[in-house]
Amino acid sequence: MTERLGSPSTGVVVTGGASGIGRACAVALAEVGRPVAIWDLDGDGAAATAQQCAELGVKSHAAAVDVSERDRIENEAEPTLTALGSVGGIVHAAGMARRAFPAVMDVDTWDVVLEVNLRAHGLIVSVFVEELQRNPGSAVVGIASIEGLIGHGAVPSYTASKHGLIGLTRAFAHRLGRSGVRANAVCPGYIATPMLLPTLTEPGSRERLEQTVPMGRLAEPEEVARVVRFLLSDEASYVTGAAIVVDGGVTAAGGQQLPELT
Ligand code: NAP
Question: What is the pTM of this model?
Answer without folding.
Answer: 0.96
